[in-house]
Design brief:
The chain has a domain of about 30 residues. The termini are far apart. About 85% of the residues lie in helices and about 0% in strands. It contains one helix and no strands. By secondary structure, it is mainly α.
Length: about 70
């Protein structure tokens, strides 16, 4: 935009605005992708925690059954 172009000032402003919005859309798209990846990782961690909690519960039940009969 440093080179004087033979176009009206309104069109120059429009072109600058479109370039700005294009970069903004690309930046927000990348940010959204990273947020989705982080969200997937967090969901996987919570699923793992739930699985561990279920395993602990099962171990507790098995210990009660074993020591009740023992």
């Amino acid at each position: 935009m440093l080179i004087p172009l033979p176009i009206k000032e309104e069109y120059r402003l429009f072109i600058i605005a479109m370039i700005f919005f294009a970069f903004l859309v690309m930046a927000l798209s990348n940010f959204n992708k990273k947020v989705k990846e982080s969200n997937d990782e967090i969901n996987q961690i919570f699923k793992t925690i739930e699985d561990i909690t279920d395993i602990r519960s099962n171990i507790g039940e098995l210990q009660r059954k074993i020591f009740k009969n023992g």
